């Protein structure tokens, strides 16, 4: 049962599950940010364990939602949390392209390449801001480069299921919170994750459908030079990072986690290759492609024909129709956003 909760001024709608066998109602753990209560809803049970919820009278990009009740993502979370779990995903227009995981040894140039990508395509990519227990470098800002976290607090949040993945790297705890990925995908942008090989392995084993890129240095000597030239670590920290680098490179190249391997010798050349891998080499526009919100007429009727949902405007002379192609559901991050193809037909 999905329902509003106006009386208690709780501004998100609640979910309850009815167990037919025991005739009991219970409240599952609800992951993701759900829709706010509205005047009316239409709902359809879809294949793959999802319920499509369409809200009436909603502002732009607030009207299409999926409650995932038995999707692969939800099944995985149920196992992890050992409780009943459901997850909200927001429907966004377009393909909600796959998130990009970038790994590589410290100092290889991951951060530099990601900054170049975000600068050239600001509306296309968003960075997943990780949590870490390491101290900030002088140029780093909390909430922008990392969420600098207290170890105890972060460990508790990991236990509570708030993290997509986490790992201990160079003696500190690092992790990607569900909320960080959600913040990027909710804005319709393609998410970039800069995480280590262990984190990439966890993401690979999860149901997050991502592409995996490993960045390699031209040599260990060059890696050492870059780390020293960056000047952000003490000698002891540099030594630790170099010791870890050899194992990381070996695993990165031979584990089969990474479908794409990129050598960062000449920076400009490497950046060009990265753009080519992401299919961006032909893109000349600075703003790239935007995934637009889905804008529905306030007053409408909803019907379902095979795998199309038809939303028809009512109460006006121009009766606009919007067709959602639910067979097109793909990409995005489960439990956050789902891409959906939308056709608008004007009469
Ligand atoms: N698993 C995991 N690794 C992360 C995360 N965030 C950063 N890392 C990795 O932690 C390592 C150290 O990162 P950082 O301290 O910023 O140093 P840098 O790589 O030398 O810039 C790098 O390999 C990052 O890719 C995360 O959320 N999860
Ligand atoms: N291809 C390259 N050639 C020379 N220096 C580079 C190259 N790529 C990155 N750098 C420099 O190497 C240092 C480490 O890069 P950074 O992006 O911080 O690495 P990471 O995020 O992988 O730890 C930075 O000072 C950066 O300017």
UniProtKB/TrEMBL annotation:
Report the catalytic activity.
GMP + ATP = GDP + ADP
Show the GO cellular component annotation of the record: cytosol
GO molecular function terms listed in the Swiss-Prot or TrEMBL record: ATP binding; GMP kinase activity
Q: Does the keyword ATP-binding apply?
A: yes
PANTHER family (alphabetical): GUANYLATE KINASE (PTHR23117:SF13), GUANYLATE KINASE-RELATED (PTHR23117)
The family line of this record is: Belongs to the guanylate kinase family.
Question: What is the name attached to this protein's record?
Answer: guanylate kinase
């Amino acid at each position: 049962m999905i329902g509003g909760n106006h009386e208690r001024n709780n501004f998100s709608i609640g979910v309850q599950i009815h167990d037919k066998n025991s005739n009991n109602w219970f409240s599952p753990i609800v992951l993701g940010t759900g829709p706010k209560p509205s005047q009316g809803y239409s709902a359809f049970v879809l294949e793959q364990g999802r319920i499509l919820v369409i809200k009436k009278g909603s502002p732009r990009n607030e009207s299409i939602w999926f409650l995932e009740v038995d999707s692969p993502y939800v099944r995985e979370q149920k196992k992890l949390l050992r409780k009943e779990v459901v997850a909200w995903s927001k429907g966004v227009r377009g393909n909600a392209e796959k998130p990009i995981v970038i790994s590589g040894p410290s100092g290889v140039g991951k951060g530099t390449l990601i900054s170049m990508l975000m600068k050239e395509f600001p509306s296309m990519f968003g960075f997943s801001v990780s949590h870490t227990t390491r101290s900030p470098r002088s140029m780093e800002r909390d909430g922008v480069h990392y969420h600098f976290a207290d170890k105890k607090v972060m460990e508790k949040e990991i236990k509570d299921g708030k993290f997509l993945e986490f790992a201990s790297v160079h003696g500190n705890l690092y992790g990607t919170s569900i909320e960080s990925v959600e913040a990027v995908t909710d804005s319709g942008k393609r998410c970039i994750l800069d995480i280590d090989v262990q984190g990439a392995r966890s993401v690979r084993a999860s149901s997050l459908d991502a592409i995996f890129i490993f960045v390699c240095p031209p040599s260990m000597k060059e890696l050492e030079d870059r780390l020293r030239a960056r000047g952000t670590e003490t000698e002891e920290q540099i030594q630790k990072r170099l010791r870890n680098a050899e194992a990381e490179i070996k695993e990165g190249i031979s584990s089969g986690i990474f479908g794409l391997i990129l050598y960062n010798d000449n920076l400009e050349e490497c950046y060009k290759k990265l753009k080519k891998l992401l299919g961006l080499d032909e893109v000349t526009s600075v703003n790239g492609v935007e995934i637009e919100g889905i804008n529905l007429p306030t007053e409408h009727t909803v019907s379902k024909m095979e795998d199309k949902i038809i939303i028809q405007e009512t109460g006006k002379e121009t009766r606009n129709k919007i067709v959602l192609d639910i067979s097109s559901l793909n990409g995005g991050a489960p439990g956050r956003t789902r891409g959906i193809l939308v056709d608008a037909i004007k009469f």
